[in-house]
From TrEMBL:
InterPro entries for this protein: Ricin_B-like_lectins
Identification of the protein by name: Ricin B lectin domain-containing protein
Length: 191
């Protein structure tokens, strides 16, 4: 069964942690408090969505997929020569993955065959910030993932809210720059 293109939360079957973009360039285990759901509502009534755990999955013409983080716009990747226990990283360069449904409906393995044999995304334990690494067994539930589609309207609302914040920051920076330029011009005139 192929995956429909869209925004997804990727959750490990065994440990229940989410795949998330770290502050660096690795993909790590992440979770939130029970009081927050995939999309919580803030006190102001807005949807609260952590974009570091939301991934855009797109299908390529060769029936493989790209997995790109919504927050950073970077693609999940491996090194040129992937090996067992190597961390999943992110990069600006497009990388392709196979996503295959397991015998259990709704569970998937995410794999690369760049190493001449399939290697699968896996999670060794349930600790936060544990890197997601390449493993060699598709049958282990810790190497299997559930993909939950994110409501695009919620995602769009969150992105628009971020855009409003960025526009506000831009206006403040423009005003600060204008003020500094004016001070510099005033200094030059008085000299």
């Amino acid at each position: 069964m192929s995956i429909d293109p869209g925004a997804y939360i990727i959750q490990n079957v065994t440990h229940r942690n989410f795949a998330a973009q770290s502050a660096g360039t690795t993909v790590v285990a992440y979770t939130e408090s029970r009081s927050r759901s995939i999309t919580s509502v803030t006190s102001s009534g807005e949807a609260d969505l952590n974009l570091r755990k939301v991934w855009s999955i797109s299908r390529l013409n060769n029936d493989k997929y790209t997995i790109r983080n919504i927050e950073t716009n970077e693609y999940a990747a491996t090194s040129t020569f992937p090996a067992i226990e190597q961390s999943i990283i992110t990069t600006q360069a497009l990388r392709q993955w196979d996503i295959k449904e397991t015998a259990v409906r709704g569970r998937y393995v995410i794999c690369t065959n760049r190493a001449k044999s399939d290697l699968y995304w896996g999670l060794t334990d349930d600790e936060l910030d544990t890197p997601i690494t390449l493993r060699d067994s598709p049958n282990t539930p810790s190497n299997q993932w559930e993909l939950t589609k994110v409501d695009l309207w919620v995602l769009l609302g969150h992105m628009r809210a971020k855009l409003v914040g960025l526009r506000h920051d831009y206006v403040e920076l423009q005003n600060a720059y204008s003020e500094l330029s004016k001070r510099e011009n005033d200094k030059c005139v008085t000299m």
